[in-house]
Specification:
508 residues; five-stranded antiparallel β-sheet; binds heme D; 37% strand; 33 strands; Cytochrome Bc1 Complex, Chain D, domain 2
Length: 508
Amino acid sequence: MSGRYVLLNSKSLFFLLAASIGIPAYSQVEAELFQTHCAVCHGSDRLGVSGPALLPENLRRVRKKQAASSIANGLPATQMPAFSGVLQPEEIASLVEFIYTPLAKTPAWDEQTIRRSHRVLNPELVEGTAKSSRPVYEADPLNVFLVVEAGDHHVSVLDGDTFETIHRFKSHYALHGGPKYTSDGRFVYFASRDGWVTKYDMYRLEIVAETRVAINTRNLAVSGDDRYVLVGNYLPHTMIMLDATDLNLIRIIPVTDQQGHSSRVSAVYTAEPRQSFIAALKDFEEVWEVHYSGQISKIGGPVIDRIKLDDYLDDFFFDSAYENIMGAARNAKNGQVFNLTEKRKVADLDLTGMPHLGSGITWVYNDTVVLATPNLQENTVTIIDTNNWKTIKKLETLGPGFFMRSHENSPYAWVDVFVGPNKDVMHVIDKATLEIVRTLKPAPGKTSGHIEFTRDGRFAVLSIWEMDGELIVYDAKTLEETRRIPMKKPVGKYNVYNKITRSSGTSH
Ligand code: DHE
């Protein structure tokens, strides 16, 4: 018996599963490669875990040649590593064929499945009594941070005045996107990449309810009136509207066109002044506006406007009036400004590479408001005048960056550059001169990324993204370090006040 057979037998459990979901027999060698190198992130069934699902319906915008290059060289700004030193070119080619082979049956995630997963853990917290109660801790509830610790899938609740941890709890696997607070900061909603949505009570420090809405989720948004949660998914191609009080399913919104094509949702955001959600789509050159002002039920509403674009919208930023979105596809061409009310493009933006507009921030500069965005592919921060959409400055950085942050009370904007080789540095930009005034190296050799400010803007809190990582607190004026707090790969931090007041220095 050949060595290959012995190996296959040792993986018989997987092949039983493969057979049951209809992976053709000829692909067993590729399937084995997939199990060894890809399954840990993309799932043994290819339905996605911390990495996206790898199915032909989710790869429509990627040519096979590109897919091979991504496997060989890795993908910038993602956790996807390069396999060129590990896999032979023919092995990469067979993996490409494998991921473009349809599953005989893609599991459905229908109404019944969603309803079956739904559980209310604390009924009294959804029945109104919760409104009058006070936090179970002494700290200022508006100056609390949630810290998502990806290292061991926990969330810490951190007092923003003393920097003591008030509470720490287990989350679902691989939370992604920002947790979203209700308008008073009392409740917060999390989405995990594998489709779980959790509602958490920030006063009582308890989970209220949870439900699994999809196989592969991107992020969620909460309506400005706190009535609805909208979740955008990669698999299935749906948006899911939930009742924000108890996460009961209200409506499944298929993201399809009249020809029967469907699209992944890259992200959903709330546009409070418009009483709508805005959804960016991966596979249609459209943006969808989902209006929530009317009554929405299982059978009626919401009204959806489908706005045609000139290009895909992978990443975008709202202006402060929520009239325009500044968007870009991840294709190294220019960015564009679309007016949501006029439903048309109103300007081009001088943005090459992969601008990370979702992480952009604004501030007042001279007589105007500028938008600054890092770039996932180029060593630049681009600063744009939002009056005329012209680029005022391209700041050269020590690498491509992911997150940018500031605060109304801070003279500085901070940007990480961890996508490139100088992953351990952080630039500090003077908002008045638009120059980099300090480059910090908080923990040499370790990845530093993502800043969030305290409610008053006096302190900036930075993450060291390592399993045995930490938060580093800086005096936001003197840029002196004041304290370190050990954490397990603290990817993101979310200050209640800055989020609910939609501070111009942070993401919303
Ligand atoms: Fe994210 C937010 C998309 C990879 C950590 N990321 C977001 C949002 C989008 C997005 C659309 C905004 C959602 C929101 O506010 O609710 N992210 C993408 C990608 O397309 C990309 C490049 C590829 C992918 O695999 O999805 C990607 N993101 C990553 C990572 O590899 C990061 C660094 C680690 C991880 O945990 O996955 C990562 N993304 C984050 C974080 C936020 C985020 C920490 C929230 C930032 C904030 O402060 O609001």
